[in-house]
Each structure stands twice: as structure tokens, then as C-alpha cells.
Amino acid sequence: MILRARIRGALLSIAAIAGFGSLGFAQDTRPASRPASRPSTAPASRPASAPAEKPKEEGFVAVVNGDVETVTMGRLKGATVLIKGTKIWKVGRNVEIPDGAQRIDATGLLVYPGLVTTRAQSIGIAGGGGGGKLADRYDPFGLDVLGTLAGGITTVFQQDTVMKVLTKGIDDLTVREGATLRLQMGSGQARLELRERLERARTYVMDSREFEAKKAAGDKEAKEPSKDGVDMGLVRLLRREVPARFEVDRAEDMMPILDLLDTYRFDCVFSGCLEAWTIPNEISRRGVRCILAPRRRQPRDERREVLTGSSPEACAILKRAGVEFAFYPPPGFDGGDIITWDGIAGRDLQTLPMEGAWAIRGGLDEQTALEAITITAARILGVDHRVGSIEPGKDADLILLDGNIFDFRSYTQVAIVNGAIQYEKSKVPLFSHIRPRTVPVGEVPAYPETK
Amino acid sequence: MGIRPAPGSLLRLSLGLAAVAFAQGPPAPGPTPQSQPSAAPAPPPAPMPWRPLPSPVPDDAPEESFAIHVKRAITVSGEPIDDATILVHGGKIVGIGRNVEAPKGAKHLDYRQLTAMPGLVVAVTRAGYAPRSLPKGVATRAKDGIDPDADVYKWAARAGITTMGVVPAGGGIVGLATAISPRGKSVDEMVKKEDAYLFSSFELGTAAKDNFRQTFERAKDAIEAFEKAQKEAASRPTPAPGTAPASAPAAGPATQPAGGAPAPAPRPPAKLDAQTEILASVLKKEKKLVTQFGGGGGFGVGGQTAPAPEVVHFTDAMKKFELDRVYVGGANLALVEERVSDAKASVLMPAEESAYEPFTRIRLNGAAELHAAGVKVGFLPTADTRDGYQDWLHKVGEMVRYGFPAKDALRAVTLTPAEILGMGDRIGSLAKDRDADILFLEGSPLDASAKVRHVMIGGELQEEDQ
Hints:
The complex is a heterodimer.
Chain A lengths: L1 H17 L3 H5 L14 H5 L4 H4 L6 E10 L5 E10 L2 E6 L9 E4 L4 E4 L1 E6 L22 H8 L2 E6 L2 E4 L9 E4 L3 E3 L5 H28 L15 H7 L5 E5 L2 H13 L4 E5 L7 H6 L3 E4 L21 H8 L3 E3 L24 H10 L4 H7 L2 H6 L17 E4 L10 E6 L2 E5 L4 H4 L19
Parallel strand pairs in A: 1-4, 1-5, 6-7, 10-11, 11-12, 12-13, 13-14
Antiparallel strand pairs in A: 1-2, 2-3, 5-15, 7-8, 8-9, 15-16, 16-17
Chain B lengths: L7 H15 L42 E9 L7 E2 L2 E5 L2 E6 L9 E12 L1 E6 L25 H8 L2 E6 L5 E5 L1 E3 L6 H4 E3 L4 E5 L3 H30 L11 H5 L22 H10 L5 E5 L14 H10 L7 E4 L8 H6 L3 E5 L4 E2 L6 E2 L1 H7 L4 E4 L5 H5 L1 H10 L4 H4 L5 H6 L17 E5 L8 E7 L2 E2 L5
Parallel strand pairs in B: 1-5, 6-7, 11-12, 12-13, 13-14, 14-17
Antiparallel strand pairs in B: 1-2, 1-3, 3-4, 5-18, 7-9, 8-11, 9-10, 15-16, 18-19, 19-20
Helix pairs in contact in B: 4-6, 4-7
């Protein structure tokens, strides 16, 4: 305590001289049981001129004093996430907060990266079809947008587009278009045709590679291969610019695809994956990634010798085999992957973390379960450089929870997407009345009281 | 009802003026636009339900002026005047105030029981638009499709609507609106202002966004190219015909014609094409771009968020362009009030409380919210029907009851829509040199008991048909 008092005294004097001190006092708002996180030498070692040099820049938002679950760099207790614009600027316990930064007090809250769901249908999409870009029909005021954020989800994958969930506007809405190439294995003739198309695409890829090499070598005679009858989508696939996505549940449907992968090497994602746990090594060997909903249930087919149906241990088994997987919420009551406000509570996007909770119950470790709704999901969609973890340089998509994410009691209190608060539970009449927090969440003054 | 018998002179006056309006042929050039045509005897007017009966007053009667005494004149542009006298001459208000002196010979109308206010202005309507010609894209003119005999105009005039901005029907960038008086035998007689603004309608989707953005981008490019060509043409010395420069033949390249004359420079186009010209006037802010939002709708419970997402996407598509914008839509425009006020757009919305705070049962007075945010708000009737027009003022009264400031409510149905039509200096207020479009009401206009007693359009008192 003496040490603490001395630090505080030193800080006070600095503050008195230079009108600076918000950093130091942040410590005082923390529970006494927690050890002082700042090394005692830090304030003293800072040169006296530092406060004067401190840039007063606009556009900073600081989420202070929360327990930050970075996913990729462990959990930082009582840390600050400093946001500049739409990106995370700094993360850590010794982050200097610029003057004029908006502060969001996360005391007593857990800070997670915004969740990424790998399957949805039409979150925030207004109006019917009509073609064009999905983002051009986005309605930031829709009810499902609100519900999705309430479930902690800030990035959705729908209709092959990865997009953010925003309530304030449409800037930086689309993260990636054409994130996967949906393929169907089909049967009989269709299956043969797929092989033929792949073969033509492969020939084209080889020929064009040869052509490029000749051209680079200065061969002017080289002839560009014809694109006639070549499926350019499959060419992208074979060049590994985009993964294929198959909607498969049964192991017997997965096997022919895995066969195909032995011939044509491309990135592949299985979506559904009810029986993936029965052939984990087959899947793992080909590097196929899975999108699944651990809570889906299907009884075993007793007439068959092989393993069938769902298993609560599925995720643990896949993990042991080295398969990468991400979760999606099971279809809602009306069959669509949408927010439902009626029907069976919990079977919708609002309870995505419960998929993880169920997988943990089946033996999966918590870290992998967390990754399955954040960074692994982002990696499968090819957007892990933007979302899925709390790291400097990534998009500032954070959710502030009042408990562990896998606890069914936890609520998303605040959702920040693209650096702006998009959702606050206390301000949304739909949710504000459910177990309201006694401590209001929100901005705290730049200079906390010094009592 | 009809005109009170007391001012017998009034009848003669109004009929006289009506007869003036009936005179055939273009108005003779005279000292004022309202000047009397020649004394040629007018042919007997065709029997029309809405026109006065043949006048006992000779058509060549000298132009009459008259003084209307009212209990209260709500000027809209200024403070209300109690016990006011309004002087009207030649279809214009020539004086208004407490102690204005009526000119000699003016007819006096005793409306001391009534309140006067400017005639109502509907800035956007499709009422009476029955196109007889094919749409011409941006260059479509509402004027070409107006049916002067439409019943809806009678209803409008009776409800006190004296100016209507008629727009062509269609989607996308629809065409030009025409401001008309609801009274007139022919379209030409009704037209108050042609090409009042450019009307458009926007819905969600890539197609609409691209259409708006590309149309204006192309217009901008075309205008720039045109202006550049004009400038070059102006700076290039034009050799007099027949006097080719002496050096030209010697230095002339082989491609030149044998005659040795210099190749003629490409002639710049004389003028922009009709569509680009219209878009140019919008880009120069000479005309407003009025955009109707709606349709589509949101998602989830009730889907009541329209037209908020539409505005978000429209703002995104049109952020490059500085335009005078007017947004037409429902109360949910309040959800995007920041975008509306950032774009300095005016707003037109039906005078009805149709929206809720998102996902609640709390009523949202979008007009009041927008007004409080500094947006200029005008009202529209809830429907282009007899009831829609007759209840309009009453509905505006309801908006006031639910929070719209009373002092600005009448402006929102007169001067604000007049400004949107680009006619703020002609109509929408009771002031000197404004058109004599005046309503005379029993009671205060926004009261439930208020009743329109007389309507004057262009200095002409309207008679009710029975």
C-alpha cells in the first residue's frame, strides 16, 4: 500500500505540473484485490516532457479497464484497447490514452473480439431479390441487425458475402465478396460433369501458367490458352484464391468429395458436417475445414453398421484429429438461419456461443471453442487479417460481456463495430429490461474522480 | 355555400376576372402580364361545372381591385395581422396591413368573421397525371400528361389547395414537375411554373444506386466536355471565309485537301442535349432534385424502417454531388436525421403519425424530430383524394398536437412547399406582390372546427359547385 501511495503521489505531482494523469488514476478504479498492473518504474521513467509531446488527436476511442480476451494473445486483465478510426491501435495494460479520446469504461466486463458466424441468410437485408450487391440492400435499422449484435455477432457470412453488422450506417460494410465458391457434388451424370469441368479448368490453369512463363521469358510466339468452356470460378478454385464450400451432413456424401480432393488440390470447406466426427482422419488428411453446429442432434441409424448421426463429442474428436472448424448457429424455428423472435428460444443467432458451450461439454477445450466463433471462422472465410481477434491493426470489432462468453447468463452489453458503438443493451428497449446492470456501462469522464 | 349575397359586387368582380381568364388566344403583350386582352367579344364559355356562369358583366369592364377585410391575416412570412385589410389587384396582392387604404373604386369584401391565410401548396403529387405521351426519361414533363378535367383538382381547390406540383409517374429519375393551379380550362391556363424541379424515386438495390450515380456522373462529364469545347472554340481565331492564311498551303501536310484550305476544326456542339441540360441545371443548383423514398421496407417485425435505409444508400450513392435536395418519405426519415441535415435536404412527409420508435410502441413524430434538428419540413396530404385534401389542415393540427411547433406548422403547408417548387417569391405567403392565392377560414386554421369558407386563386374567388 505504501508503494501504491507513493506511485499515486508521484503521479499526482506529474498531473499537477502538466495537467496529466488520467492514465495513472485509471488504476484507482480497479478492485483493490487486483495487483497493481503497472510496473512501479513506468511513470517515473517517463521523461518529464512526455505529457507536452502527447499528441492530441481526434478519433481515438479507448475501452479501458476490461479483461481483454484477445483470442490469439491470451487474456489481459485490466487492459486497454485503444481504437483509432475503425482499427485497433494498441492493446495492453500500459497503453497511453491520448487526450480527447472517447473512453468506454469496461470495468467488470470481459472484452472479446466480435463474433464471426459462418452461416446466415439475410441479416439486415431488406427487400426481395433483384440482383446486385447484397450490401446495397442493407438496412442498418432492421430488427435482425439489432438481435445479431445482441448475440455478440459482428461479422456474418451470407450469400457468399462476408459483411459487418452495423446499425449506424453502411461505411465499410462489406468485408469480402465471393468468400467461398458453393459447389454441389451431385450424383450420377452431374458428378461426372463436375469432374469434367474441373479437368478443363485444370488444363487451363496449367496452360496459362506455361503461357505466363513463356511470356516472361520473352517468347512472343506463346499463345494464350482459350477460355472457351472453362469455368473461371473453378479456375479461381484451383488457383486457391477461394475455397469450395459443400453443404454436406452425411459421411457417405463427404467421401466422394474427399476422393475428388485427392485428384484436384483445392481448399475445401464442409458446411453442415453432422457426421464429420465419424471420419475425422479422412477430413484432416485433406485439410478440409468444417462449419458445424454442435447442438444439432440426429439419432444414429440403427440399420447401419457404420457410425452415423450426431455426437456431443464431435468437436473434441475433430480437434484431436487436427481438423479446423467453426460454428454456426443451428437453423431457427422457421428453418432459416435468421434471428427468430418466436419459437424455441436459443435456436438462433443470438446464442452462437452456446454452440461452443455444448462442444466444451463434449470435451473440447475452451480456447478452441472460442476460436471456432472468432479467429477460425474468420480464417475459413479468408478474413482473418481483418476480424476474429483483438490485435493492433485489425478492425475494431469488440463486444463487452458481463461474464464468460460460454456462460448462458452472459449478455453482450456493448458491441463496437468498425470503431463505433453499434449496440448498447441498456439503450435498446428490447433487451434493457432483462437483468439490467446496476453499474451503467458507457462513457466515463476523461478524468476519473480522485477519491 | 357559395358567395355571400351581401357583396353583390364581388360576384360581378369574380365573374369579370374569370371572363378575363377565358379570353382566347395568347395574352396580348401589355404593361403587365395580367393586363386585359383586347375588347374583342369573348365567345360563350363552354359549360363547365367548375366555372362561373356567364357573366352579366361585360368583358371589357375595367380591371377591378378590391379590399378584403378579415379578422386576422396569417401572413406566414411575417407576423399575423389582426383586423387586416388585403388589397388585391390584377391577381396580385398589392397591399396588406391594418391601415392600408383601399383605392377608390375597390370592391370591399366584409370577411371580418374569417381568418385569411395563404393558399395551401402541395409540392409533390401525381394527382391528375394521365400521360398521353411516352416518357422521355429525364426530359419527361408532367405538363404533357396533366388532365385538366380531373376531379381531383376540384377537390383540391375546394379544400383550399391553390398550387400543386404535379410529377410524372415512374421510377428512377422520373422527369420534370410542373406547378399548376387546380383551376383552369386547359393545361396552359393552369400552369404556374414549368419545370419546377427534377423528380426522382429511389429504392434499395444496386441498380438504383448505379442509375443515380452514373446518370449524374455522365452528365457532369458531358457538361465538362461541352464547356471545354466551347472554350476552345471561343479562343480559336476563326479565319474569315475565303481568306485562308497564306502559309497554310506551303506548310500543309499531305493529308490536306488539294485545295489547300486548312482542315476545318471540329465544330463544337451548339448546345447540350435536352436531358443533360436538365441535369446540368440540377448540378448548378438552379433546380432542386426531389427524391421520393419508400416502398421496399425493412425486415423483421413489421418492417417499418423504410425509408431510412433508402436514404442511407441514396446518400452513399450521391455523396459526390452538391445538390439542392428534397426528400419525400415517411416519419422514419427521423431515423436518419443526421444524414438529412448533413445533406441540407428539405423534407416532405405526409402529415400523419405513422411511425414508432424502432421496435417499440412509442409514437414517433418524425416531422417534429426533424424540425428540431434544423431540417426544413413540409407536409403533404395523406392521400390524393377528397378526404385526403379536406382533412389536410386537420392532420397538420394533429402533428402540432403531438409536438410539431404551431408557429411553423402553417409554413409547412404553404411557404416551405412553395420554396420547394422554386416559387417562394410568388406564392406561399400573404405579402405585397404575391399571387392572390388566399384562403378564408372560419376559426383558427389548425383547429378541429376550422372550415374553409372561401378560396381565392389568382385573385379569383372560387365558387363551390353543388
